[in-house]
Amino acid sequence: MRFAKLFPPGTADSKPETCTIADANVALDSIAFSTIPQQDIPDITFIDGGSAVLFSTPTRAFGIIKICEVRTKGLKRESVKLHQYLVSVTRDGAFTIRSEPLAGADPAVSACLDGEIESPDATPEQLIDTLRALAERAIVPASLTVHDGSLRTTDPLLQRCAPSKDTFALAKSSAIITSRSRPLGVALLQRAPAGTWAAQLCDNTIKTWAVRLHQRAAHVFLLEGTREEPALLSALAAWSQDITFPGYPYPLVLADQLGRVTNNERDAWRLILRSDAQAAEVIADESRAQDAHAQLEHILYGR
Q1: What is the pTM of this model?
Q2: Which of 8, 89, 120, 300 is packed most tightly, with the most Cβ within 10 A?
C-alpha cells in the first residue's frame, strides 16, 4: 500500500475494552444486546434543522435558521412543517437577538429568537447555531419526539432546556472511542449479533442505547432519552427500511434534507442583504474594520 505509513497499527491492549459515556465507564464485554421487539407503532414527531452564517464580525452576526418537523401516525407521514427565520445577533453587553420569520412562523420558535441572552464565552457567530438548537427544543408536540443529535450538551444555554419524558434524540455521528482507540460503533459491531438490536450503554438521568435498526445497516447509532420506550425502538426500526439509507429512520432523512440551509440559499440571502442599503452599509463598515481577507480575495478572484 502506497500510503501504509499513514495508517499505523493500533496499540495492542490486553485489558478489557471500555468506553466513557457522560460520567459512566462502560465495559464493552458486559453489554447485553437484545432484539428490537415488534410492537404497535406510536405517533412520533421527528425534528431536525440547520443554520448558516451569512455575515459576521466580532460584534454582529446574521444567519438563517431552518427547523423541520415531520409528524407521523403509525407508518404514515401525517404532515411536514418548515420554520425558517432570518436572525441577527448583536453584542451590546449582553447579546441582543432579533429575527424575521420567512416561512412557517411558530410562536414557540419566535420566542427563542427575540430577546437578550448572556453568554460571555460565545461569539455572535457561534450563537447562530446555538439559537438553532434552542429553537428545535422549543417545539414540544403532543407525541413522542425524536430529535437529530444528542440530548447531552456542555452549552450553558442548552443545559437550561431539560428534555421532557417524551423527548428522545438519535445521533447520526459519535466521537466516542474505546480504551483501544477504536470508534465505539466498530467495537460494538464486532460483538453484536446479526439483525436488528439495541443495547443499553448508560443508565444515568439521560439514558443511552446503541441501536442497529436494519439487518444490513453499516452504522450503529446512539439513542438517548430519560426513560425506556420499547414501542419507540420498534417504530425506529420499522421506519428504517428505506433503500436510500437502510438503518436510519426515513422521517429523519426527510427532516435533514428539508432543514438544511444549502450553499445556494446562503449565497442568495447574502445578495439580498447586500441589496438593502442600510444593511449593506453596516456590514461593509464593520467587515472592513476587522478583516482584510475580502480585499485579498478581490485581488485574486476579482470579486
Answers
A1: 0.89
A2: 89
